[in-house]
Structure formats: structure tokens, C-alpha cells
Amino acid sequence: MSKLRTTLSTSLATLAIGSVSLVGSPTAHAQAPIQNPEPAPASSQTTTRTLSASSSNGSSSKTSGLTFGTRSEAVRSLQAKLTRAGHYVPQTGYFGTMTQQALRDFQASEGITVTGRATARTLSALGGVSGSSSTSTSSERTARSAVTSSVSSTRQAASSAGAQAAVDFAYGAIGTPYVYGGTTAAGYDCSGLTQAAWQAAGVSIPRTSYAQWSGLQSVSTSNLQPGDIVVFYGGSHVGLYVGDGQVIHSSRPGQPVSKVSMSTMPVSGAVRPA
């Protein structure tokens, strides 16, 4: 009987230990998705490895001080550079999904590894980003500075503060949909865009392309300044000159506001609003 009692006690103890082991298994909980936006600190090896991997994957973005989910003037500068490169993103200063996609598109167009992150090579190709808390190497900073100087030296200066404001507005409108008769950020037609650009500079100009051509001061196409309005197709189309033979225009349904070479369309003349 004594031997039987000993055997039963041993069996019950084994079952109890097994129950505690099952209930307290750290593996069963470590792999569950985290629902709480501010979870309690974890100390398991699984969590430590996950955080380490996340830090490694984001190292390129941390190099530039620009990471997904952050808000800063550096992000706003990045968004402006992407827009001027033809990949429109609102200049909100917040690094969200739109900025990430614009980065991917830019990287693809430049032959850079597509990551959606602000890597040192991406920033160098964009000409640098002001306000970035960069910790990049001396050689990277030198390369970025060289690109920035190149961009600055080739971009033609506007003839007045008003013209510069109009040009800046047009750059910010890149990517906006074409809407026939449109005069707002919801969509522009060609003359709606040029009118809105100069309105942003505090200058009121006629609404239609023909009225702009006939009602504003005519200038020679050989003496264009950023902010001038270039007329195409005998007056049926206009675009805002931004320098270096380029105009920003809203051309047709299905084609958003974009920057193109003047040489892609027959030029009929040019006017200067102010």
C-alpha cells in the first residue's frame, strides 16, 4: 500500500508540473501578434532578435535621419525634391505611404535599388535634403554637396519674387489631375494652372489661354524668364516656363500636371504677367 501511495504521488506531481509547463510556455505567447499599440516590455530572446532585425533593416534610413512615420522640415525638403524630380508628393513634412511610394518611383527611374527609404545614394541623386540630421560619411557628404551645387548652378533664377512664387506653385502642382475648366488643386486645365500659379504670386491674369496670350505683355521666346507663360498650338495651350527650356503644364485628360521640354510642342509665343 505504501508503494502504491508513493507511485500515485509521483504521477500527480508529474501531471502538475506538465500543466504549469503548458500554461507558462513562453513560445506560445512570443509568436502571437501584438495588438496593444504600447505593449509591455518583453525580455524573451524572440523579441530581442526581432528588434535587432528591425534596426538592421532601417539602417539606411537612419543614416539620413529620415524614417517612415517621422515629421520634420527635412521630410518636407525631401518631398519638395521628389516633386521637382517629377514624382509628386504633397509637402506635408510627414513621411508616410505617399512619400515612400514617391521614393520607390524615383529610385526605379534612377536605377537605384528600390527600397522606399531615404538612402544616402537616393539623397545624393536628389541633390541633398536640407534639415537632415545626417550622419553619413565625409565622402557621401562631399558627393551630395557636388550634386547640390550642380543643380543650383543649372536652374535659372526667376526675374522677380512674384515669378519665383509662380514657379514654386507650379512645381507643387506636379501630379495634379487634368480637369477641363479646372482652376483648383482638385484639377487644372492648362490656363487654369497658369492662372492659379500667378494668383499664388498675388497677380491676377485672364482665365483662358487665348485671353492670356492677347492680354499680357508679349516677350520673345529667346528671352524667356522663369514665370513667363509660353503659348503653344496657336493659342490653344499654355504652360509656365520654369527655366532650362522646360515648362510645367496641364495638357489633357488622363495626363497629370508635369514638367516637359518646350521642344515637344509647337511654340507660338510667350507673355510675361509681371
TrEMBL record:
Domain (NlpC/P60) spans 160-274
> One Pfam family from the UniProt entry?
PG_binding_1
Q: Which positions make up the signal peptide? A: 1-30
- Source organism per UniProt: Luteococcus japonicus LSP_Lj1
A single BP term in Gene Ontology: proteolysis
Q: What is this protein called?
A: Putative secreted protein
Instruction: Give the similarity note.
Output: Belongs to the peptidase C40 family.
Alphabetized UniProt keyword annotations: Hydrolase, Protease, Signal, Thiol protease
Q: Which InterPro entries match?
A: NLP_P60_dom, Papain-like_cys_pep_sf, Peptidoglycan-bd-like, PG_Endopeptidase_C40, PGBD-like_sf, PGBDSf
> Which residues lie in Low complexity bias regions?
52-64
Q: Where are the compositionally biased (Polar residues) regions?
A: 42-51, 252-266
Which GO terms label this protein's molecular function in UniProt? cysteine-type peptidase activity
> Which residue intervals make up region (Disordered)?
28-68, 126-154, 252-274
Asked if Signal is a keyword of the record, the answer is yes
